[in-house]
Amino acid sequence: MKRGEKKLISSDFSINKCTNTFVFESAESCPKINFYVIWNFISKFSIIFGAVLILVGIFENFYGNKLLIVTVFLATYAATVTFVFVFLFQFIIPSGGHPAIVWVVLAISTVAGLILGYLVSKYKKIVIGMILGGYMGYITGVILYDSIFVKIESSPTVIF
Fold first, then answer.
1. Which of 40, 59, 98, 113 qualifies as a cystine partner to 80, CB 3.0-4.6 A?
2. 84 and 10, same structural domain?
3. Model pTM greater than 0.70?
4. Which residues span the domain enclosing 15?
């Protein structure tokens, strides 16, 4: 099907009903960005992710200020893993791939995070502000994105 082309699949229309249904097929209906692959992966292994994040949080709570280089490394590692993971799934890896591909992407993200975390902790005075600011901007963007589209999904009349 070409872009801009629409095909009516089915309709349930009556002038006497308050709810009418039309089902169309179109290339524009495919999502451009899909965070559900990542969300499903995190949900499936939520106990592992939760335990790791709790341990990192406890460590940062008690030793974050004392071991600033480790804190810088962990923040850079988390930002890099998150960015590479999302980037690979959104722009490079096609949807509907083999489930094992998620672990490969996580391994690639981890290696990139370890390398960049080491470099940033070595040269922390130069890049600490850029990394933390960028990561916080990313998190703010994701929160805004999710909060806006949750409202649209729960109340489609917002669109119209």
1. 113
2. no
3. no
4. 1-30
